[in-house]
Amino acid sequence: MRFEGKTVVITGGSSGIGRGTVDLFLREGAAVVMGDIDSAEGTSMMASLGDAFHFKQTDVTQENEITALMDFAAEQTGGIDIVFNNAGAGGPRDAIDEISGDDWDFAMALLLKSVAMGIRHAAPHMKKRGGGAIINTASVCAFQAGFGPVAYSTAKAGVLHLTKLAAAELAQYKIRVNAICPGFIQTNIFATTLGANDAEKNQINTALGQVAAGVQPVARPGVPNDIAETVAYFASEAAGFVTGTHLLVDGGLLVGSQASWDPEMPGMLDALLPESMK
Ligand code: NAI
After folding, report:
1. What mean pLDDT is predicted for residues 253-260?
2. Do the domain assignments include residue 58?
3. Which of 93, 187, 201 best tests ligand 1's pocket when mutated (most atoms within 8 Å of CB)?
4. Which member of 22, 77, 91, 172 lies 3.0 to 4.6 Å from 107 by CB, making a disulfide possible if both were Cys?
5. Is 233 a catalytic residue?
């Protein structure tokens, strides 16, 4: 019960990583206030998760809805201690030489401005509490090409820098700000971004499990609880000296080329060896 007496606000908690994080914080004794655009799922979670769970339909692209979510959380539970700015989607998939300005703006509103406004409107509540912890969802896409669309990846890189700057500005109020960079986590985000129907969704999720198991040293896809545990660490007193940084939670996806960790792959030096030296 690491979070008894604490209030945590989680965005994008109707599905995937956010849902796993809702479950963890409820198990650990927190009051959880969840904001998501998906009101059907949020309402059904209200019916099943008990009195410590609160839901407010929230579109994180709308600043006034983020303000309302934070105010609602404080009204319902007395204040805010922890915020997980997590809602997101793959967004527009167009290449940089094809994307429209409107699509670019949408991706930034969904993935970057939402995090900035989440921090902006949580901070006054946390100041009243005498401190707090904010955790933002970035991605491995912040570091390398090839994992996500250009607008998505650019926004996620922005989330990392925003995390540092906010940590610097809010330290005086005892508010810590950190980010998590998930790798391949088995959720619906890939199917949703590709516009898949239910049957295609299942096929995509099966394929994701197989692909993820082969592209990184830890031979399995991530699950939402892998990220939830990292959120809990950043939110806890154990991380009291940790702010303005990020943690890759990616099964080693970014550790190096496949030859560096896969014993079946010839290494670069092996490729240089003449036959007589092999
Ligand atoms: P998901 O699709 O399972 O969940 C995303 C949630 O965000 C859904 O509940 C959805 O309704 C909500 N959402 C979408 N647009 C919203 C809006 N405008 N306002 C409020 N809520 C909205 O996806 P997943 O994987 O759990 O994604 C969570 C976060 O993790 C996202 O920020 C995503 O970019 C990030 N991420 C996911 C990775 C993965 O492999 N699954 C890898 C790296 C980052």
Report:
1. 94
2. yes
3. 187
4. 91
5. no
